């Protein structure tokens, strides 16, 4: 089965729209492309941040995290990273930090 970038990006849209709506509260605009390279763009009046599509849309990268199993010493469980978790746990804090929101 071949990886379909367009389908993958479509599947991520609900999580991305949530991030975009959150950033609008801080007057940060989103552009899905910079018109030159494969970057998404976040900008306000003071800064422009570009993140390569490959990273932002998680074409490869983290897909699981581990958590401890309650009541079981030294035992862990692997949990799938959903698109929403990826955007909110990895991309959102990175963007917040770059725009001095945290």
Tally the beta strands.
Answer: 5
What is the rounded distance between the termini? 41 Å
How much helical structure, as a percent, in the residues?
25-40%
Question: In what order do the strands lie side by side in the largest sheet?
Answer: 1-2-3
Rg: 16 Å
Structural class: alpha+beta
Mean pLDDT: 90
Q: Write the element-wise H/E pattern from the N-terminal end onward.
A: HEEEHEEH
What does this structure look like?
With 102 residues, the chain is of the alpha+beta class. It has one domain (5-91). It is 39% helix and 23% strand. The protein has helices at residues 5-24, 53-56, 83-98, and strands at 29-31, 39-43, 48-52, 64-68, 76-80. A 3-stranded antiparallel beta sheet has the order 1-2-3. Strands 4-5 form a two-stranded antiparallel ribbon. A hairpin with a 4-residue loop joins strand 2 and strand 3 (48-52). Helix 1 crosses helix 3. The longest helix is centred in the N-terminal third of the chain and has 20 residues, at 5-24. The chain is globular and about 50 Å long.
Question: What structural keywords apply?
Answer:
102 residues, two-stranded antiparallel ribbon, alpha+beta, 5 strands
How are the SSEs placed, and which strands pair?
Elements: H1 5-24, E1 29-31, E2 39-43, E3 48-52, H2 53-56, E4 64-68, E5 76-80, H3 83-98
Antiparallel strand pairs: 1-2, 2-3, 4-5
Helix pairs in contact: 1-3
């Amino acid at each position: 089965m071949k990886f379909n970038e367009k389908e993958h990006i479509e599947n991520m849209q609900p999580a991305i729209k949530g991030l975009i709506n959150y950033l609008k509260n801080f007057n940060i605009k989103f552009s899905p492309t910079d018109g030159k390279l494969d970057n998404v763009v976040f900008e306000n009046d003071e800064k422009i941040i570009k993140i390569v599509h490959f990273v932002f849309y998680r074409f490869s990268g983290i897909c699981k995290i581990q958590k401890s199993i309650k009541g079981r010493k030294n035992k862990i469980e692997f949990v799938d990273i959903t698109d929403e978790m990826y955007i909110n746990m990895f991309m959102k804090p990175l963007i917040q930090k770059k725009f001095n929101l945290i």
